[in-house]
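The pair is quoted verbatim as follows:
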Amino acid sequence: MAHLTGPTFGPAAGGAPRQLVVICHGLGANGDNLIPLAPALSAALPHALFVAPHAPDPCDLVSPEDGLHARQWFSLRDWSPAAMAAGVRSARPSLDRFLDETLAAHAIPDSDYALVGFSQGAMMSLFTGLRRSIPPRAILAYAGILLDPDKLADEIACRPPVLLVHGDADNVVSVEFSRMAADILKRQQVPFDLLIEPGLGHAIDAAGVAAGTQALAQAFAGG
């Protein structure tokens, strides 16, 4: 099992962190690509520590040299549902361990964390977060897919609020995957909001960040 590390931000207010927000990057990126989201999101959680771990493996879609900085949670050479389900299952223990160890290292209460992910990182956040025995306060999934949905009814361990954000011009991960995720979450009685952004491609824009900031503020309100 890989031991994850990555860049951090905060707490913006200074002092010891009271909450943890883990940001999971997409295929071929690394934690440095998404930690810049943290200053904006910290408007909702000035006492939170934001961490963007580098995924455990070099990206197998680029050269070995580029793979030093291009990471993957699991291979996406095969986009079949079975292959992606196997991939996310193999990667989940590393993310679970990272969450548990980071919470413990900073003496943050086990329930005071949230997951944010983009693309493959959103796949990881949705899959892992819904199966945690101690639920995250929120899951923010940008341009992602809810993988292995047929097993969710048997495996779901918690029902945290989920924000799904997707551009309707995404030509990498179709917006239909977020629409399907919304249907599945509804059937499993998971509270969710779905934001479809007209004209947005495979990206996170200011409107998506604003929606995420609001979702985090609501999730941690009162504690």
